[in-house]
Design goal:
- This protein is α/β, with parallel strands linked by helices.
- The protein is built from ten helices and twelve strands.
- The chain has a ten-stranded mixed β-sheet with strand order 1-2-3-4-7-8-9-10-11-12. A two-stranded antiparallel sheet has the order 5-6.
- The radius of gyration is 21 Å and the shape is elongated.
């Protein structure tokens, strides 16, 4: 797969953040006449050390650096706002080259792990009824380089390595499939960012044909944002369900798991009085029986004008017991960073009033 030449500014110059190490190696040899190994050295500077200034790559000869300057670019983004929650979760606001903004979340984990949640679109066109991102509409797709850039920028905030990357921020990743596919190539390149495919999770609302492609073409993990156990309720929450209903989605997940003995993550946002009954829990149990999966229960994270309420702890616990008691690995997810609107469904990419553009 070759790197894309399209940018948000219609600039056809190839972006080095969309090259795998092998792409870069071949480009340097074939286009710039470099010696073997030089392209991989540039990739190490970019992806291992996070250096995006070609002049700072002091073991790369000037002729090659000048050639790369003439024929390629390295896109930039900045973290223009950062909020830190009491649990250490950080909500990051990235400013892109065209002044669009997207948000991401850096989440501390056990034993020093860090998970980075990144965005794949400016806004989202899916229109899920319970998601704050949907209220802002859709602006554009992100390029693969802008997804890579989120990782490079977030890595500068901590000495602790990012161990997992989840494409669960703004946007429907599979609605931007080609750029996400290129990002996966770069992110899982052993000589580049070097993430294990199983440490990279793509979340979807259920775009079934592209779920099939993802399963065929990659080894990454998949998360399905299910959120209902009947088509009637899911139609009202996630409009795409009218095209790809629940039964078809579950069969698609079984095929996905059958490729490489993979497990999937079922994400289920609990909405008071909508999808949180014991009958819902039993129907969900029926849907996932025999599926290699884990279920994430996510009590609704409120936002102004959201129109839904969070169920109480007793209701959540009763729902959990139905699944866990039947042997389904089920986790009630803490609302990490909810006091800074960094929890699931709360991202929108807006700057706080009165904030400057510098890092905090």
């Amino acid at each position: 797969m070759s790197p894309s030449s399209n940018t948000c500014n219609d600039n056809a110059t190839p972006d080095l953040l969309e090259f795998t190490s092998e792409d870069l190696e071949q480009f340097c040899i074939q286009k710039l006449g470099a010696r073997p190994g030089r392209g991989r050295s540039v990739a190490a500077w970019l992806f291992r050390r996070g250096v995006t200034d070609l002049d700072a790559m002091d073991d790369i000869n000037k002729t090659l650096r000048d050639g790369l300057k003439r024929s390629t670019r390295i896109s930039t983004l900045e973290i223009c706002d950062r909020q830190v929650a009491g649990d250490g979760t950080q909500k990051l606001l990235y400013r892109l080259e065209d002044d669009c903004t997207v948000e991401g979340v850096l989440i501390p984990g056990k034993r020093g792990r860090r998970t980075l949640c990144i965005s794949t679109q400016v806004g989202c066109a899916i229109g899920c009824a319970f998601c704050f991102t949907a209220t802002g509409g859709f602006t554009r797709n992100l390029r693969a380089a802008e997804m890579v850039g989120q990782i490079l920028a977030a890595r500068q905030l901590s000495d602790i390595p990012i161990s997992n990357v989840v494409l669960m921020g703004q946007g429907e990743p599979l609605n931007n499939y080609e750029a996400v596919r290129r990002f996966i190539d770069v992110a899982t390149d052993p000589n580049g960012l070097a993430f294990s495919p199983r440490k990279l999770t793509v979340s979807t609302s259920g775009l079934m044909p592209l779920m099939e492609r993802l399963g065929e073409e990659t080894r990454v993990s998949l998360a399905l944002s299910l959120n209902a156990t009947t088509d009637e309720v899911r139609d009202s929450l996630i409009p795409i369900n009218r095209v790809y209903p629940i039964g078809d989605l579950m069969n698609c997940l079984k095929r996905f798991c059958g490729r490489g003995k993979r497990r999937v993550l079922i994400e289920y946002v609990l909405l008071k009085g909508v999808n949180d009954s014991l009958d819902d829990a039993r129907r969900l149990l029926d849907l996932v029986q025999g599926l290699p999966c884990m279920v994430n229960l996510l009590p609704f994270n409120a936002f102004a004008g959201g129109g839904f309420e969070r169920p109480d702890a007793e209701t959540v616990n009763a729902f959990w017991k139905v699944l866990q008691g039947a042997g389904i690995t089920t986790i009630v997810r803490d609302s990490r960073g909810d006091e800074i609107s960094a929890a699931c469904g709360q991202l929108k990419g807006e700057k706080r009033a009165g904030q400057g553009t510098g890092k905090k």
